[in-house]
Amino acid sequence: MTDTPTRRIGLPWYRREDYPRIRDMMSDRHNLAPTYDAWLAAAENNESVGRAAGLQIARIPIEPDAFARWCAEKGVEPGSAARMEYVSEKSAERDA
Questions:
Q1: In angstroms, rounded to a whole number, what is the distance separating the alpha carbons of residues 85 and 47?
Q2: Which of 4, 21, 60, 87 could make an SS bond with 64 (beta carbons 3.0 to 4.6 A apart)?
Q3: What is the mean pLDDT of residues 53-59?
Q4: pTM of the entire structure?
C-alpha cells in the first residue's frame, strides 16, 4: 500500500457579475457557456465529478482586470490555455 498524495487541481471560477466581461475578452468565447447559469451548472458538475474521483478541488477566481493584466504581462492571448496556466499558477501560490 502506498501513501499517494491526493491530487489537487484548480478550477477557473467566475463571479456572476464578471461573467459577461470574461466571455467577451476570451479568444475562445464560443467554447464558454452563453450564460452564467449554464456555466455555473457545468462548473459545479465538474467539481462534483472531480471530488467523487478523489481529487481535491480549489476554485480559483478569475477576475477580468487581473486576468487581462496577467495575460499582457505573459504575452499570451486570453483563451483556454491562458486560463489553465493562470489557474495552475494561482493554485501553486495557494499551496506555497
A1: 18
A2: 21
A3: 94
A4: 0.86
